[in-house]
Design goal:
Elements lengths: L2 E7 L7 H15 L3 E7 L14 E4 L5 H5 L2 H10 L6 E7 L7 H10 L2 E6 L11 H16 L4 E6 L2 H10 L6 E3 L22 E7 L7 H13 L4 E7 L3 H13 L6 E3 L5 H9 L3 E4 L5 H5 L3 H8 L4 E4 L4 H4 L6 E3 L4 H12 L2 H19 L1 H13 L3
Parallel strand pairs: 1-2, 1-4, 2-3, 4-5, 5-6, 6-7, 8-9, 8-11, 9-10, 11-12, 12-13
Length: about 375
């Protein structure tokens, strides 16, 4: 073991998509005892977390930005205490620098950590009616452009983001692609094919923002229901209050309540079980600058499950998928989605073929074992 990673930002033990990403990246390395992992959790989690895998953990819990200032000393103590002078120490920042983590980033550099960023979205393309959020994003990107002098390297989830970061911050040291990844060892056995009289289960898991295009998934569901097709839309995840209100208002408007099975925000184990019991998975992201720059985390899991996937052709999705391993459709087009769903419903053979081909694609590009090894090699070589 010659690397100590101090992960800051999300919880490595409990949380949203960010937690899944860092688990898939670091847990394979932990299991092989190639790294030791500490976690300075800035997600403001209000849950007690059971840590059974030896991660050193510190939660910075705060009730306001003022109270946060009094917790900075605790974070710095945690950073200093876990610095290991005998190995390569990495301060791994998930996301951009911010008013919450900048003090820890600068302090870690002084202690002797090498600073690494993992960027999964382009915040410059996000628009918000909330002026406070807009200001936070502006500050984050300005900090990012100024922090190149103490940054050792940067990862980004897509080639588009890699290119934009290199263009925006030409003085930044190496910028590398670190794709979405999935832990195949955690996937349960899939449910058998559709039984007679069972509803067709279409699965979606993730956020509920406008970028996710769920409006078009609901419209497609309504069209299938109108054609007397037995269908159920199974959803997991969470979003902000406005997004949820918009989603469920559309459900009411289209009179789809009995065809919607919203499970809420579930554990990883339950999420993967629901995924494995579904029949078809859908990624319906819209054609927006934000959606095009990133990459949907869930796509790797959908493909790895062996289920047939329908995905909108945005960003870099077509770099991995074509009509031999998934069905690609134009974004914001419910009619195309309906046609694709009917095509899959009418052919168990096609569902099987696409599911198997998609799973092979996931193993080739998104297997956590392979991606984490590439990450490890890069971190090993940081000087």
């Amino acid at each position: 073991m010659n690397i100590h990673v101090m992960l800051t930002g999300p919880s490595a033990l409990n949380g949203l998509a960010s937690t899944q990403r860092v688990q898939n990246l670091f847990f394979p390395l932990l299991k092989k005892k190639l790294i030791e992992l500490s976690n300075l959790d800035l997600s403001n989690s209000d849950k007690d977390i059971s840590n059974t895998i030896g991660i050193k953990y510190q939660n910075i819990k705060y009730t306001s930005y003022l109270s946060y200032l009094f917790k900075i000393r605790n974070g710095k103590k945690f950073i200093s205490k876990n610095y290991n002078p005998n190995v390569n120490n990495i301060f791994y920042v998930y996301g951009y620098p911010s008013i919450l983590n900048i003090a820890f980033i600068k302090f870690s550099k002084k202690v002797g950590y090498k600073i690494v960023f993992d960027i999964v979205e382009d915040i410059t393309t996000l628009k918000s009616i909330n002026p406070f959020k807009a200001i936070k994003r502006y500050i984050a990107f300005r900090l990012f452009k100024r922090i190149h002098k103490i940054t050792n390297t940067c990862f980004a989830i897509s080639d588009i983001l890699v290119s934009k970061i290199k263009t925006s911050i030409p003085k930044l040291s190496g910028v590398y692609k670190l794709p979405a990844c999935v832990d195949f060892t955690r996937l349960p056995e899939p449910k058998q094919s559709i039984k007679q009289n069972d509803p067709l289960e279409i699965f979606y898991g993730g956020s509920f923002g406008s970028k996710d295009g769920l409006k078009f998934l609901l419209e497609a569901t309504k069209a299938l229901v109108n054609n007397n097709i037995n269908i159920k839309l199974v959803l997991t995840g969470k979003g902000n209050k406005t997004d949820f209100e918009s989603f469920f208002n559309t459900v009411e408007k289209l009179k789809l309540k009995k065809h919607i099975d919203y499970k809420g925000f579930v554990s990883t184990k339950e999420y993967l079980k629901l995924l494995s019991h579904s029949d078809i998975c859908c990624i319906t992201r819209i054609n927006s600058p934000f959606a095009n720059a990133g990459f949907p985390f869930k796509l790797g899991e959908f493909l790895a499950s062996g289920k047939p996937v329908i995905a909108t052709n945005i960003g870099e999705i077509s770099s991995y998928l074509n009509n031999t391993n998934a069905i690609l459709i134009e974004p914001e087009n419910s009619e195309s989605l309906v046609d694709s769903l009917i095509k899959l419903l009418n052919s168990s053979e096609l569902r099987k073929e696409l599911g198997q081909a998609g799973q092979e694609t996931a193993y080739k590009y998104f297997d956590a074992e392979k991606v984490s090894q590439e990450l490890y090699k890069t971190l090993q070589n940081l000087r």
